[in-house]
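step 3/5: co-fold with zinc ion
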Amino acid sequence: MPMVHVLDTHQLGTSTIVAATALETNDGLALFDTGPESTFDNVAAELGEIGFMPTDVRHVFLSHIHFDHAGAAWRFAELGATIYLHPRGALHLIDPAKLIVSAERLFGGDMQRLWGRIAPVPERNVRILHDGDRVRLPPFEIRAIETPGHASHHHVYVWENNLFGGDIAGVRLGHGPPVPPFVPPELHIESWLESLEKIRAANPAKLYLPHFGLVQDSVPAHLDAMEERVRRWSAWFLDRIRSGADEQQLIREFAEYEKADLLTGGANETLARDYETADPSYMAIPAAFRYWRKYHPEQLAE
Ligand SMILES: [Zn+2]
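step 4/5: write tokens
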């Protein structure tokens, strides 16, 4: 049995919203996503509870470079860890200047509080993985699967019958349903659906989600529910944009639409608030506008 530990980053004092997932290997720990830099000490404390230290993390596999997933990667690199990720993500990890500018557009002056410090990862610590690449970490072999849709530079990782799902496999909290985090600027619906197919083809029995934790016994149903929401939510946005709704209006309407969907799907009010924290609904609006305008302008012109 692989020893897998879901570590709670306790981002902004919350519980079970943002995870980093650790796998014990013969060469120290492999960490799947790190959480933001602001929660590095919390992750260190969680590692302590299972008998490890941050220096035991020798390998860090990043699903993508959004700060809630990769923000602390440079801290582990500083301690000597190798950071594995998609080629397009690697450029921004080595030189985060552009990433910071685009994040400041989204988060304004709230960057430090939300994510902590951002610093470059030295190139010598970075190892680029392409689709299908394997990393031998006895007794495991970790395989990267390129899975765009949420971000163009997204990978999921498979070992044995386990799959680390990043954001493409959905946000699922407590007894709530899985939902797709639609965020700008790289949302691409067709890619998302293809990525879900690739995840199905890997046939995982256990799915580890950064938001949050282990899904097992119901992975096919989870993936079906994800596909249904990706299709329905993107169609809902197309319909609302075509009818002339503006961004401000859609921010309100989509927050209500998503909340109703969560409550129908088994969440209660408290859990629905946690989903908002993990994946703020307002981010879907610029994402959807950009997607429909850029890839299907003909649909909007009719
Ligand atoms: Zn993300």
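step 5/5: annotate
The CA atoms of residues 82 and 124 lie 8 Å apart.
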